[in-house]
Amino acid sequence: MAGNAWRSAMLNLLRKWGLIKAQEVSRVVGAIRTEAPQPRTYVRGIHTVTLIPGDGIGPEISTAVMKIFEAAKAPIQWEERNVTAIKGPGGKWMIPPDAKESMDRNKIGLKGPLKTPIAAGHPSMNLLLRKTFDLYANVRPCVSIEGYKTPYTDVNLVTIRENTEGEYSGIEHVIVDGVVQSIKLITEEASRRIAEYAFEYARNNQRASVTAVHKANIMRMSDGLFLRKCREAAEKYKDVKFTEMYLDTVCLNMVQDPTQFDVLVMPNLYGDILSDLCAGLIGGLGVTPSGNIGTNGVAIFESVHGTAPDIAGKDMANPTALLLSAVMMLRHMGLHDYGRRIEAACFDTIRDKKVLTKDLGGNSKCSEFTAAICERVQNMD
Amino acid sequence: MSATMAAALRGSLVTLVKGLGGPRWQQLASRPLSVSAGLCAPEAPPARADATFKVTMVPGDGVGPELMTAVKDVFKAGDVPVEFEEFHLSEVQNMASEEKLEQVLTSMKNNRVAIKGKIHTPMEFKGELASYEMRLRRKLDLFANVVHVNSLPGYNTRHNNLDLVIIREQTEGEYSSLEHESVSGVIECLKIITREKSRRIAKFAFDYATKKGRNKVTAVHKANIMKLGDGLFLQSCAEVAELYPKIKYENIIIDNCCMQLVQNPYQFDVLVMPNLYGNIIDNLAAGLVGGAGVVPGESYSAEYAVFETGARHPFAQAVGRNIANPTAMLLSAANMLRHLNLEYHSNMVSDAVKRVIKQGKVRTRDLGGYCTTGDFVRAVVDNLRHRPVY
């Protein structure tokens, strides 16, 4: 398309003039693509990021991450905000306005685990955040951690899941007593958006192939539409290999040989199941990072485990998931160097096996684990 | 416009859903619809002449025909008193039509037992959204799909000594084939859950667990998101669980279940779930013990039993290359013989297959060996001669 050609020509020109480094391409690309580019808070080289500590072990692991970033001298300034649902004018549940304003300004957020109280009358907080910022893509890179042995080695894949529609549209009704109908919604717009994001991600992160996961042999119209949009997006990104595979075949092959997969893109329900399956391959939700990408350049990175109320406040929590999500955030912002160092420090500490939290098989405290990583990061300079 | 359309849709949906569950559907299906209706003889008596059992065989697509040949070879070598009535029904090879489907159904109703391969569903649809395989299932009301996930002795995977049973509701849920495009670019797909069918599959699961001496039944669901749909399924399972106090009942969310299956599958015993989750977990569990080539499965209705592989794939890449693994189909055939009360022959076939796997000398490519299907079948036939003395 003409727009793409013009954009890449301009990028090449900027690169030739030395105005942008290769690493910052993804960020610049993101900025140019949006219709109304918002100025990101980037004052004197320091990025401001909204931090949502969350509940349960959330505050402890957030503090741990802040300490590690300080030790690494990462140019990040944290703005802490709280998101508890409040009832806005008109009776609609929404997140507090100061949190929304902060996110809109900073564009990048890091979130700890949020608890969903049962029978509180309001929808889950995660759902509310998703709706407020239109977080349409959930990205979960699953990479085997060297020091944490699971039966599956050499896992290195990314699951990209459509996060707004599909089976989780929430449209259900009782037709007659004893018969319930649940509606799965697939729209052209959302499918196109997620497919293009998947290929964009693959290109920006030097990934070789994208696999669309579907069940178009059973749900011929709905998954058929999703598949068509993926195929159309594949046409525009000829440098990334595109394959399609049935969901059951993916599950079958994933547990036998996970190395054959690279980037997987899929609708909501399959994404939920497959991303948790892949998390299980590398060791569970306690070590898996996750990021949610929205429109207008908004991105919220989070840890996907629960709030663990039984160990909250006891300094026993494992900050790895939130830390790896924060590393993902650094990479998204283009700060690859800092991301690499912090990630290496974290993996080295786990590989060493001297200071590990209880869920990783050791019996150290969270603060000791954090201190070990801080030390390593400082020694790395 | 949309309100009346919605009302009309709901009305037709109600009739459809009521029809699917009611007795009228089965009566409709049993009436011969073929052109030669007048020439059809009255319903034949159950085939039990000369103590030879007649079994319907539908080879299907992909490697199905090769696997069926394997079964026939082994049965011939073992003098198994089973006679096959073959029907070649295939959507992708243009060998499908309403008459053929009727023939298969009539044959299955007479024989009551069938063995089949996978009838592949092409992704493009011409008119009907339901594939032939789905229609076969619905007409015979094969509501329960049972997959036996057992580790093979002699073949090591990442998780050894597994022994799971996965029971999946096969007629409703996400596979309702009710889809429509309301506006261009917006497609709705309906997932139907009924109390009657959920109760039926739950009762089947608990009865199965009781019969086979199992301790625990776990229901798999996503009721935190699909509160009404899976909520109804869960409620039905809980109600049925109360009638079986000796069997422990638990439930688990599907994504957590997948994670637990790859980390610690030993915590599960019998799993029961609706249609789509069943498809996922069947294949996942099959992968845990060695792939689609080693897991047998069967489908039950109130009157019929159909035996097939556990993970249903046509495996078109292997057609003609003689590399498919017939273990799953042979083990399923052994289960079929047990169902027909041919205990001796059943044990003979399954012992032979297990012996070949344990010896490890003859293995097909998916288990890490280099042998062809033919080699494997010959090895099984050779091992058949060492009949266990009773």
UniProtKB/TrEMBL annotation, chain B:
Q: Which SMART domains match?
A: Iso_dh
Q: Which residues form the Isopropylmalate dehydrogenase-like domain?
A: 54-380
Q: Which GO terms describe its molecular function?
A: magnesium ion binding; NAD binding; oxidoreductase activity, acting on the CH-OH group of donors, NAD or NADP as acceptor
* Subcellular location, record wording: Mitochondrion
GO BP, one annotated term: isocitrate metabolic process
Q: Which PROSITE patterns match?
A: IDH_IMDH (PS00470)
Q: Which Pfam families match?
A: Iso_dh
Give the UniProt entry's GO cellular component terms: mitochondrion
Instruction: State the family named in the UniProt similarity comment for this chain.
Output: Belongs to the isocitrate and isopropylmalate dehydrogenases family.
Q: What does this protein do?
A: Plays a structural role to facilitate the assembly and ensure the full activity of the enzyme catalyzing the decarboxylation of isocitrate (ICT) into alpha-ketoglutarate. The heterodimer composed of the alpha (IDH3A) and beta (IDH3B) subunits and the heterodimer composed of the alpha (IDH3A) and gamma (IDH3G) subunits, have considerable basal activity but the full activity of the heterotetramer (containing two subunits of IDH3A, one of IDH3B and one of IDH3G) requires the assembly and cooperative function of both heterodimers.
Q: Which NCBIfam families match?
A: mito_nad_idh (TIGR00175)
Protein name (database record) = Isocitrate dehydrogenase [NAD] subunit, mitochondrial
The organism encoding this protein is: Myripristis murdjan
| Phylogenetic placement of the source organism | Eukaryota, Metazoa, Chordata, Craniata, Vertebrata
